[in-house]
Specification:
Blueprint: H1 25-39, H2 46-53, H3 67-83, H4 92-108, H5 111-117, H6 125-141, H7 145-170, H8 174-186, H9 197-209, H10 215-232
Helix pairs in contact: 1-2, 1-3, 3-4, 3-5, 3-6, 4-6, 4-7, 4-10, 5-7, 6-7, 7-10
Keywords: DNA-binding, Transcription, Transcription regulation
GO molecular function, one term: DNA-binding transcription factor activity
Protein name: TetR/AcrR family transcriptional regulator
C-alpha cells in the first residue's frame, strides 16, 4: 500500500543522521543516482539507500510514497539538469536544437537512470517546465496549435527514445560495448558484394557512423521537416 507523504514543512529530521546528514528529497535523489551508477536498477532499494544515507530505510517514506515515486523524482532531476542555465534566444530552431541536445546529454550522462526513467511521465516541476518551454518555442515561432502538438510529441519522444537506446548501450559492460562496436569491422566490413552488395558498398561509412549516436542527425532531420512545414503554412490538421 502506498504510504502517505509527509508535508514538506514537516519532513526534516529534528536531528541529523549518525553521519551528520540532514535528509532532503534532493539528497535522496543524488544518493539514488549514485547507487544506479554503481549497481544498476537492481541495486536501487530502500535498504541500500538507507545504508548510503546512514538512516533507517523507513525514513525515506517521509519524502516519497515508494520506490516508484522516487523513480519519478530521479527522472525529473535529470530534466532539471538538462534545463539548468538554459535561456531561450528567440530563434526557434536554435532553441529546440539546444533543448534537445541538453535533454539527451543529461540522460545519457546517467545511463542506468535513463533506462529506468526515460519512458516515464513524472508530472513534476522540471518536466512541466521543459514541456512548457518546447510548446512556447513552437507557438512563438508561428506554428498552429495542432502542428505545435505534433512536433512537440515527435521532438520529446525522439529525444528520450534515443537517450534510452544509447543509454542501454553505455550501461553494458565495457567488453560488450567494444565487442558490439567491433562487429562493424569484423563482420560488416568483410561481407562480399556478391552476397551483400549494399552493405559492402556502404561498409566504409557504416564502420564510422554506426559507432556514434544518430540522435544529432535525427534531430536535424526533425527540425528540417518542421521548418519546411512552417514555410508551407501547414495547419497540422
Amino acid at each position: 500500500m502506498a504510504k502517505q507523504v509527509v508535508p514538506e514543512e514537516k519532513r526534516r529530521r529534528r536531528r541529523p543522521t549518525k553521519s551528520g546528514t540532514v535528509l532532503s528529497e534532493g539528497l535522496i535523489v543524488d544518493a539514488a543516482l549514485r547507487l544506479l551508477r554503481e549497481h544498476g536498477s537492481a541495486g536501487l532499494t530502500a535498504r541500500r539507500l538507507g545504508l548510503a544515507l546512514d538512516c533507517d530505510p523507513s525514513a525515506l517514506y517521509r519524502y516519497f510514497r515508494g520506490m516508484d515515486d522516487l523513480t519519478l523524482a530521479i527522472g525529473d532531476a535529470l530534466m532539471g539538469q538538462a534545463l539548468h542555465g538554459w535561456r531561450p534566444t528567440g530563434h526557434w530552431r536554435a532553441d529546440l536544437h539546444a533543448v534537445g541536445l541538453r535533454i539527451y546529454e543529461a540522460y545519457v550522462s546517467h545511463p542506468q537512470a535513463a533506462q529506468l526513467t526515460a519512458s516515464r511521465v513524472t508530472g513534476r516541476a522540471n518536466e512541466l517546465a521543459a514541456d512548457e518551454a518546447v510548446l512556447d518555442i513552437l507557438r512563438r515561432a508561428g506554428f498552429p496549435l495542432p502542428e505545435t502538438v505534433r512536433i512537440y510529441h515527435a521532438f520529446i519522444d525522439q529525444t528520450l527514445g534515443f537517450a534510452a537506446l544509447d543509454a542501454a548501450s553505455l550501461a553494458l559492460p565495457r567488453a560488450s560495448q567494444r565487442a558490439d562496436d567491433a562487429k562493424w569491422q569484423s563482420t560488416y566490413a568483410r561481407l562480399p558484394p556478391t552476397t551483400h552488395p549494399r552493405i559492402a558498398e556502404a561498409a566504409p561509412l557504416l564502420t564510422t557512423h554506426m559507432v556514434t549516436s544518430a540522435y544529432p542527425t535525427a534531430l536535424e532531420m526533425l527540425l528540417d521537416s518542421a521548418e519546411s512545414r512552417l514555410g508551407a503554412g501547414t495547419d497540422g490538421t
